[in-house]
Amino acid sequence: ALTGSLDKLDPFQRTMVELMRQFLNRLTEINDNLVKVQASSSFFSAPTSPKYLLEYVLSMMLQKKDICAQEKIRKRNTLTKMFEAVGLTLKSEYEDFNTPEKISAISEYIQQRTDVQGDGKRKYVRYLQEFMKTANRLKPECYKLNLMDLLPDIKKTNKADKKPHLPYSKDQLLNMFNPKHTFFKENPDLFWICVIALFTGARRNAASTLQYKDIVEKEGLDCIHFTEEGSKIKHLKNEASTRFVPIHDQLRELGFIDFIKRRKRQLKAQDLDFIFPKCQTKAGNYSDKLIVRTLTQFLVKIKVKSTMKDGYDFHSFRKNASLATQAAGISEVFINDIIGWEGKTTMTHSYSNHTLTQIKEQMDKFSYDFLQPHFDVWKQIMAEK
Known about the structure:
By secondary structure, the protein is mostly helical. It has 17 helices and three strands. Helix 2 packs across helix 6 and helix 9 (188-200) crosses helix 14.
């Protein structure tokens, strides 16, 4: 009807046909305009996947709940320096980093660092791997993990090549426990952790993760039970590390037993509660921040150690316990019982074949008499903690 003659139509019908023709013409015009707009604009194009800046990926990486503030700063600074070494900043897009050329350049930078040892370089690689895995979770269709194959395979530093742990000297111990320093007064948990290690040779994890149930009376003697039982975060190095150690007279005189009883009563603590709660993160993982960071900063401040890896650390207390027992003429088989040595031969693998009374008699042979004047002051200070 629209293409035929209008003569046979009445006036109303002709009007309707004319309006229909105008509508169709207008519709065609609108359609043509839409095609032109679509061709010249991204408005109607399919949405593209977002691009991310290195800064954003890094912020997502550092959102883990179990990572402390200092760890975040360390990772951020380390990664930033690696980016800058290859001409990138945190404002660069991840796509600029995510290329074979950049990953190879960063790998070469890590390998050429002469001021960082093998284990330090391995840490750099771990940070990069964590960073790249974070980006992959954000944009798996583009940020593939295959470029991780270009990162260097850094061998772990051989034990023989590492700087040995050194015992603290008499002067260093006197300085560390000098009551003129308020550090241990402000951090009483660290005071007890340190003296426990000094008298038992306990390693970092063993000394800091003690639970109330681990302070026991056995064979008529107050003892510390070093064991992995009670918590998943407790880790001992070997079979010999699991042991009962009678509490040394100097440690008892410091008020250690009274401290345990008082704290348990005040906090209404249970047997499985940790004596030093900061050994565990809110997420339930082991935390050595109190020892590795807080204590180290204090020792550097008072010049007991330098800022470099000079061999003086928490393990040095174990060295002190070893030397003190040897200097007192205690035989190796008893030293094994006290500080948890495995022994070099089958004969010296005692694994606590001695009675606790025998071990206590041997422990009475050694002491840190030169520290007693300081300990007398600390006894009064710690009685209020």
